[in-house]
Give the backbone structure.
Amino acid sequence: MKNNTYQRTRLIITTFVLAVVFLAVYSESYLLAAAGVLTGLAFLALIRSGKKIKTDERELSVQEKAARLTYKIYAPTLGISAFLLLFPSKSGLSVFRNGEWLFTETIGMVFAYLTLFLITIYAITYHFFNRQYGGGKSEK
Amino acid sequence: MRLPITFLIDSMEEVKVKNKIKIFRAMHNLTQEQLADEIGVSRQTVNAIESDKYLPSLGLAFRIAKLFKVSIEEIFIFDEKEKNYEN
């Protein structure tokens, strides 16, 4: 299978899965959504195994840049949002005393843990790839 | 179209390398699609390399040179006007 055919097939399957999930959510049938997603994944795995498609190196380079930019935007945004949501509730302002704005603290905590999770994953994967590409070893 | 936030991306110092892929492709009567299939990349990648928008990896450069049966230096030309790294 040529790369173009593979890309086209992948697009068709993704569109099909999206349509099934949309219909499933609309009809509140979560079983159908799960079945749609699983079937889509199975089809993608099937067509990927049946051909000799190598991921294009330019595409990989683009993905790396996009992922790096996403991390650079997402991590600080999430971290600053967590701080902004947590800080007022911890400041002892009168509006927070009755517990009416308690949800801001909860959301802040969720954001804070998400930031932590994101940074942890980044640190682990960085360490892994750094070792894979020969970093961290001193010359003897 | 360029993203206005690309300043967030750390990039290595750009190396200017020109190439003669288009000429060699014409000499061998190959289309971008055919060349892409031969070297295992997409047509867009061949187009990006030809128009100097994407610098191929060393492995891909070797594959291209091997296909045209020439040395890498005959296809890819390093821009000598760039910084001198010998000092």
User: Anything to note?
Assistant: Residues 110 and 132 of chain A are 33 Å apart (CA to CA). DSSP finds four helices and no strands in chain A.
